[in-house]
């Protein structure tokens, strides 16, 4: 039985044949995991096996089985991908690069796109994944077709389009530990032969996974959640040539923040000597019992909301398709947390909590002309425009003369960001088995704050050679470039640094040049898919995260640091040895380290083995060298494995037990490779049990992180203010960390109609 072959005609026959031999509905779902996945990685619809790029693609059944409810679960199925989390911000790491920045000015290294629209901030990237058609994860630079901030990769999330055939939908309810309650509803209604709508809505609530032992009650625990999401899609298809889709979505989330720099102190340095535990706390403070048991006496909170409109219009010409995508998005966010990480404090203490507040308006427009037909030359031309107006500032608190808490904002910033580009990509078939793919993109980007604005002009390129070794195997080689946009630092930091004669208003883009060699193959009559890629990425002018003491706290800023060299190997496979067994997995090897890389000196670390240097000869440390260190979230080895078996229960449907396991070698959670920021090698395992009635009912139970493994997924090394600390008058560097969730469980029921 053939399930997948690169040859398209054989693919169609294989799928048709497989459908005849499937014994029940859920077995059909199992086989669908192996069916052809159509992706739009090259801005046109084509089989994933025909694209000269490293891509992990998940259809709707894969998404459901893997428990992917947001971007954080993708690291369980994507080779080498790691997730850095802090508060309500996602920092995706891929092939030796990631973003450390906090706030609107921070640009990602892996771009996230929802239905073709760029998601501008790391906070918005955490949006819930509801009613999805597929997810595509592209690894390596994607600059020619996707522009800035995709030089590590890109994630394309595609929602399901309205169906014109019949009324349909589903209702899902899920309960779990920590009083989790999730409901989801989907309704598809064809209003006529040419007009259809689709509604997806979701609510998700749970108590905090991190217990605040100082205060009683679940409302004071960290990492609780109250999420609301709604998406309404309307599709109009008046003819075979014209289709228009209008999407409206809104979402909101309320939670207790787990801190933008880490909610737990795991160690630090006092006058250059490393100490474990809490080095930046009030005298007499209770030590945290563990990653999921802390003691806090001040409030923590996060409130985020966004609203989005997208218009997508496609018109078919004889020789090409014309596509217009326009989006308007509004975002509001606030998060703050107990900044002394303790259960004590006095009325004289400033800086009781710290966080940020932000509003953001984004507008983007993309026009594409995509060739039609089966000729030797296939091409895409496009124009892209993006504008962002944002208002962002640090928020903190102090005590007034009468003992009341006074909130204040400092470092207030009005950011403006603009990007426009023209691009083209073409594939030419030299012969039946040999093709050349090339792309070019011209960008103009500007970013500024309070009158300090800079513009950067860059040209990105990609060249690929594709060769069909057989009808079931393709090899390819690519060379490409990419960049992450420059930016502007916040006003408070800029003013302080200016007093020291340092101009930190703006920082430049960072760049990458990448080589990749890959193979894509289908074996065993379509039952085994095996893809592999070797890569070498050379990053330059990398954005370095530095800190400065500001208002008795630490505020971050960004500067250009230097180089990162990254190379590695990625392998992924899917295998269906029988109609009941499904096995998949991946493996990644990564060798990444900083080359010439200097950032601002950090008080408290001492000489750090001679890495902190006096470059000016004035007797003060003014440079910290990271040369030879490993970038954050860059383990040498990662692997993942998934296996399931369908037990045919006859008229009772199908019962499917499923196991997911991951292994990650040790890594550092921060660019400064100090001991408290190191995560040891570890494994994590999940199990699921799925019953499908064969008709309309699906019941699922799961346990995640069976080992109850505490995994550090974010760390920050910085020098906080010393006022009020146990190290009064001493030079202190603190290490703050965020951790993944403990063991969790849940069970859910879905009814389809």
Concise summary:
The chain has 753 residues and is mostly beta strands. It is 5% helix and 56% strand. The strands form nine sheets. The chain has a 22-stranded antiparallel beta barrel. Strands 3-8-9-6-7 form a five-stranded mixed sheet. A four-stranded antiparallel sheet has the order 17-16-45-44, with no helix packed on it.
Describe the structure.
The protein is mostly beta strands and 753 residues long. It has a single domain (198-752), classed as Maltoporin, Chain A (Beta Barrel), CATH 2.40.170.20. The protein is 5% helix and 56% strand. The protein is built from five helices and 46 strands. Mean pLDDT is 86; it is low at 1-28 and 722-727.
Which features would summarize this protein structure in a list?
about 5% helix, mainly beta, Maltoporin, Chain A, globular, 5 helices
Write the layout of secondary structure elements.
Layout: H1 8-21, H2 25-32, E1 38-39, E2 46-47, E3 54-59, H3 60-65, E4 82-86, E5 89-93, E6 110-114, E7 117-119, E8 132-139, H4 143-146, E9 153-159, E10 168-176, E11 180-190, E12 195-206, E13 211-212, E14 225-236, E15 242-255, E16 264-270, E17 273-276, E18 293-294, E19 301-316, E20 320-338, E21 353-371, E22 377-399, E23 405-429, E24 434-449, E25 452-470, E26 473-484, E27 487-488, H5 491-499, E28 506-507, E29 510-523, E30 528-540, E31 543-550, E32 553-560, E33 562-575, E34 581-599, E35 612-613, E36 623-625, E37 637-645, E38 647-648, E39 654-664, E40 667-668, E41 678-679, E42 682-692, E43 697-704, E44 712-718, E45 732-739, E46 744-752
